[in-house]
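Hi support team,

I've been running sequence recovery on a batch of backbones for a student project. Most finish fine, but this one hangs at about 90% for roughly twenty minutes before it completes. I'm not sure whether the input is malformed or the queue is just slow. I've pasted the structure tokens below so you can try to reproduce it. Let me know if you need the job ID as well.

Thanks,
M.K.
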């Protein structure tokens, strides 16, 4: 089996370590992310999700344990953390608050310019990144990012990360605060980026998004990995999820309520699956039960 592209080995982290205010956020997390995965990272508030992902590109140094990116221990004596940060792109929650340049083009090009790339290469990366998030460079490049809609601003922020051409894209609550249309558009772009080979780690409280996109789900609880597996297997553990402060995707909750009322309906994680399961149950039900 090939080595994970990104791996945490027994990672622990304590805020304000060595003080009376010390707070242990991670308690020995071991986790690998393979190249090409789309992993959903879920857990209640305070479970350690945001702390963990800041270890992925060296923004935080573990109190204990190792973080390895593309075979390199980030905190080894001669580690090149700048190179690792180019491999792992991190989009924080409400990332549009980090926009600051006068135009969209300059904002998206900030990272490549900081790398010292030639102007032509910077422009090519900006155009490519904007197209990857569904924004026409000719239409949006010269506009102020602050004149855009919330969803467009979020996509500009994502384009700024993509312009660095990372191998791993880590998204912290990427759809938070967006209206349904902007949320659906952004999820479509995330799905397309993964389909083109980008490794994606999706951090979210939205179980519907995890059910729709993730191929694997990791649950963090109290700073530890509580579950790790395929979405269908993880979401089958309803009692455990509730004990961890989590719920089910809405479609899964719907079909389970129907079964509790005697309807013979199959499992579902997404609304498309629920629709097919309910229609199949209706076709198979005795005529008097319809």
């Amino acid at each position: 089996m090939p080595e994970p592209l990104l791996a945490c080995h027994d990672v622990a982290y304590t805020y304000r370590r060595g003080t009376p205010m010390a707070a242990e956020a991670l308690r020995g997390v071991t986790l690998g992310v393979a190249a090409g995965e789309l992993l959903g990272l879920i857990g209640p508030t305070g479970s350690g999700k945001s702390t963990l992902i800041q270890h992925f590109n060296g923004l935080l140094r573990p109190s204990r344990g190792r973080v390895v990116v593309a075979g390199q221990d980030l905190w080894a004596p001669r580690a090149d953390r700048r190179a690792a940060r180019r491999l792992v792109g991190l989009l924080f929650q409400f990332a549009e608050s980090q926009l600051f340049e006068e135009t969209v083009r300059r904002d998206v090009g900030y990272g490549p310019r900081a790398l010292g790339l030639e102007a032509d290469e910077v422009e090519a990366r900006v155009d490519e990144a904007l197209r990857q998030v569904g924004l026409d460079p000719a239409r949006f490049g010269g506009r102020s990012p602050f004149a855009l809609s919330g969803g467009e601003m979020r996509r500009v922020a994502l384009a700024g990360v993509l312009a660095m051409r990372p191998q791993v894209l880590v998204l912290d609550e990427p759809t938070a605060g967006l209206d349904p249309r902007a949320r659906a558009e952004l999820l479509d772009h995330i799905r397309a980026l993964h389909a083109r080979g980008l490794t994606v780690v999706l951090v979210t409280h939205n179980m519907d998004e995890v059910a729709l996109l993730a191929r694997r789900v990791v649950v963090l609880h109290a700073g530890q990995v509580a579950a790790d597996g395929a979405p269908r297997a993880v979401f089958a553990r309803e009692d455990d999820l509730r004990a961890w402060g989590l719920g089910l995707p809405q479609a899964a909750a719907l079909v389970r309520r129907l079964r509790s009322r005697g309807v013979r309906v199959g499992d579902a994680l997404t609304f498309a699956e629920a629709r097919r399961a309910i229609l199949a149950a209706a076709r198979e039900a005795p005529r008097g039960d319809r």
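--
Follow-up from support: It reproduced on our side and the slowdown came from queue contention, not your input. The radius of gyration is 21 Å. No action needed from you.
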